[in-house]
Amino acid sequence: MKLKNIFTFLLFLGLLSVQAQNKKALSGVEAKPNIVVIYLDDLGYGDISSYGATELQTPNIDVFANEGVKFTNGYATSATCTPSRYGLLTGVYPWRNAKARILPGSAPLIISTKQETLPKMLKRAGYQTAIVGKWHLGLGSGNVNWNEHITPGPNEVGFDDAYILAATQDRTPTVYIKDGFIDGLDPKDPVFVSYKKNFDGEPTGLDNPELTTMKWHHGHNNSIVNGIPRIGYMKGGEAAKWSDVDMADHFLEKAQAYVRTHKSKPFFLYYALQQPHVPRTPNPRFVGKSKLGPRGDVILEADWCIGEFMKTLKEEGVLENTLIVFSSDNGPVLQDGYFDDAIEKLGKHAPAGKLRGGKYSLFDAGTRVPFMVYWKGTIKPKESKALVCQVDLLASFAKLVNEKADMSDSENMLPALLGKSKKGRENIVLEAGGKTSYRKGDWVLIPPYKGEKLSWHSLVETGVDREFQLYNLKKDVGQTNNLAPSNPKMVKKLLAEFEAIRGKDYSNIKK
Ligand code: NG6
Ligand code: CA
Known about the structure:
The protein has three domains: 35-191 and 236-425, Alkaline Phosphatase, subunit A; 196-234, no CATH class; 429-502, Arylsulfatase, C-terminal domain (2-Layer Sandwich), CATH 3.30.1120.10. The chain contains nine helices and 20 strands. The chain has helices at 3-26, 59-67, 81-90, 118-124, 247-262, 294-315, 393-401, 414-417, 488-502; strands at 34-40, 69-71, 74-75, 128-134, 161-165, 176-178, 181-182, 192-194, 224-225, 228-229, 233-235, 267-272, 322-328, 371-374, 382-384, 388-389, 427-432, 435-440, 443-446, 469-472. The longest helix has 24 residues, at 3-26. It starts with a helix and ends in a 9-residue tail after the last helix.
């Protein structure tokens, strides 16, 4: 045989074995495809064209929905970031951990290093594991020295490789951290971070508006980096500071490089993009592309990044052996701290689709998010109504790779995720700002709470009310018709179930 023929033959054998592996997965036998979780920040149920957006076209993300399993009842565990990421990675409902609330950039790690995690489980199954992108689960164990090894962090809870931003794009420290060390740090220019007070002589958004190129609306008036005032103070680390407009390209390159260098053995990559969270800083290539202002532009930028990432999987010959989950950590928000035209240029775009509420909300748009599972050549395109939650990835992937997992709230949804079954979870307890609600089948029960009905800063309906709220999502997806007064029997039934999971001490209304 000529060399070329031998090569073709080997390639053919390779393809056969990939297909055999994938068939195994579908027949319920262990398979070890690469697993990639692509996770956006604050992307709403209606923000992509395959979920109904008409004013934005997201062709690369749409591939997952149109050629994979598109879930219409897919949920994050929480309406904000830290708790949702906690649920995704640990398989535990975030309301079980009082520390799982939006964290400052200086917060200690909230996942115990002894706790089960998705990457730990996959490591035991022989996977290489990595995170690229937003972390926001805390670092260190209090009083971090940012100029030394920052630990514990992602490496100590299951990730072999970690290239992260510590908290959010709007919080200090505005540097990348690679396996516990600030990337590009000049030791002669150490980094100091505080969430209590400013460092002497450092400008702030509050005192030096003339130095800002993006204007703060609420919060976000501490240290200024790249003209953008942030939450939290920071000093030093000039050479290590990230460039906001290049962040998407930077994370993309890291994710692509990871695939190229780890493709010969199964890998798990958690690719956590920063868009469309504030500050929305599209690269100049995307400025004005959407006509919806920076929020739309960064969604198009994220879509492009995902397309490029998919090209890499293909070029490296691993596309058909890679299972991809796409989702978002919480629902959409327009005004989240900066004047950036998100409201002014919204036009007809509906970031939450037909759902009510948004980020921070107990209403459905807080937690119901785009949720797709794509596995080229193995999963058949399908729209699924099955109730699935990000907390289920731990148990489902444990089943896929035939590994035991220590799980509490995570349920094995593998048949639903692969489009083999219509059956989802029976119920979910969802969280927003520490308050919880209960979904069972098509019913949603929101118990009474004290608090604002409309968040003062972002003008999102929080879903909080002093009365019981009961909605039937099948008949009333927009949650406009509160059936609690007319159906006290259902309220009682659901409340009893909810309290059995959640405990009786959930409400902040003293009886
Ligand atoms: C809030 C910030 C908001 C955003 C959010 C975290 C204020 C007033 N608002 O506290 O701008 O940073 O935290 O978003 O500071 S999340 O998606 O990471 O949960
Ligand atoms: Ca978020």
